[in-house]
Amino acid sequence: xxxxxxxxxxxxxxxxxxxxxxxxxxxxxxxxxxxxxxxxxxxxxxxxxxxxxxxxxxxxxxxxxxxxxxxxxxxxxxxxxxxxxxxxxxxxxxxxxxxxxxxxxxxxxxxxxxxxxxxxxxxxxxxxxxxxxxxxxxxxxxxxxxxxxxxxxxxxxxxxxxxxxxxxxxxxxxxxxxxxxxxxxxxxxxxxxxxxxxxxxxxxxxxxxxxxxxxxxxxxxxxxxxxxxxxxxxxxxxxxxxxxxxxxxxxxxxxxxxxxxxxxxxxxxxxxxxxx
Length: 276
Description:
Elements: H1 12-15, E1 26-30, E2 33-37, H2 39-45, H3 47-55, E3 61-63, H4 76-83, H5 96-109, H6 112-119, H7 128-144, H8 151-160, H9 167-170, H10 175-182, H11 192-205, H12 223-232, H13 240-251
Parallel strand pairs: 1-3
Antiparallel strand pairs: 1-2
């Protein structure tokens, strides 16, 4: 039997092509301005453009819906022009500002794999609020792809720094991400009331957050917050996990008990007293 050899053309051949010499036959529209490039580069940068060319090979223009870019700076001339030069395949040192813009451009162009690559470097000294920003950037991508790299590490960072992060930003995270943060074994709380109050704010605006109360150790929240819960919570949304946590408070001794990460256990301690 003849021995076979796996072979593919070297990417170096692609890097050495003088794309700037090709006809500038494709236009991106962004915030009323036109940026020309070659059709090949447009296809390279954008899966959306590639899909359009399958259905209409004569397509020469793509409008970028800048409302989804989520920023106000009028500096795209600089950033998008540089973005179009990524075809050189040369390593570039991106500033935080460039990285932010490139992520949003790739999102609008449907290139989620490149976004994951830009999000892949999680520095050891990343802080809680920056981790939340990263999670917000990834949330829409997660909906569109099965790629979920870096989530665990970012969630761990936010869990450890829960007390220090901007809760208003955190409220914009997807439900399942919030649940993973507050149910994480490494969740660090100054006191149980801070977690309860965060969930109560979410629930007050949208009942869908009611299951998150099962991650609160009701045994360790203040009497004042217990009263808030009684006054605000609709029994219709009471699930088994939340009920078991409430039961722990009813049957425990008066002193505070160590919190647990989950209230889903079937174990309820024998009645020894009722908290006052």
